[in-house]
UniProtKB/TrEMBL annotation:
SUPFAM superfamilies assigned to the protein according to its UniProt record, in alphabetical order: FMN-dependent nitroreductase-like (SSF55469)
Name by which UniProt lists this protein: Nitroreductase
Lineage top rank: taxon: Archaea
Species classification: Archaea, Thermoproteota, Thermoprotei, Desulfurococcales, Desulfurococcaceae
Pfam families given in the database record: Nitroreductase (PF00881)
Domain Nitroreductase residues, every copy: 9-64, 85-145
Molecular-function annotations in GO: oxidoreductase activity
InterPro entries: Nitroreductase, Nitroreductase-like, Nitroreductase/BluB
Keywords: Flavoprotein, FMN, Oxidoreductase
Length: 173
């Protein structure tokens, strides 16, 4: 089982083109159910998930900046937003964890996703989604059945990113 899980982690790709096939709400809820098990400071679980099926809202979200365009061809979007006072010092990290859990669960269910940044457009997103001032949109995800199969992107070698005991000290193997 551990090799299967490791392969799942390594095989996830950012999907920017989607088939027009609608995604059953049950699948999205299954992925959200898994995402709510993500770690959070003091188990605060400050996340909120907004499923956007409405094409007009998805269009507005997809036009918010150039990298949001995958939302224009995805059957739906999921926004992960955080209630800041529920985890004042780590809500961004907590909701980033929930985002990753959602993406991995969606991948396991045969869905594709791409993480679209939100932090430069918080005000616009609050207006589009009706978010109160204490709720920060941390990620937007285009979600659907993959319409592409991107090849793996190169990864840095372990020797370049792993140190032993102190930064810069090479790992001796």
């Amino acid at each position: 089982m551990s090799d299967t899980i490791l392969e799942l982690l390594k095989s996830r790709r950012s999907i920017r083109r989607f088939k027009p096939t609608p995604v059953p709400l049950e699948l999205v809820l299954k992925a959200i159910d898994a995402a709510r098990y993500a770690p959070s400071a003091k188990n605060s679980q400050p996340w909120r998930f907004i499923i956007v099926e409405d094409p007009a809202i998805r269009r507005r979200l997809g036009e918010i900046h150039a990298y949001a365009r995958p939302l224009l061809n995805a059957p739906l979007a999921v926004i992960v937003a955080c209630v800041s006072e529920e985890s004042p010092t780590s809500y961004l990290l907590d909701c980033a964890n929930a985002t990753i859990y959602f993406m991995l669960a969606a991948h396991a269910l045969g869905l594709g996703t791409v993480w679209i940044q939100t932090l430069r457009n918080i005000g616009e997103l609050r207006e589009i989604l009706g978010l109160p001032a204490n709720v920060t949109p941390v990620s937007m995800l285009a979600v659907g059945y993959p319409g592409e199969s991107p090849a793996p992107r190169p990864r840095k070698p372990l020797e370049e990113i792993v140190f032993l005991n102190k930064y810069g000290e090479p790992l001796k193997t």
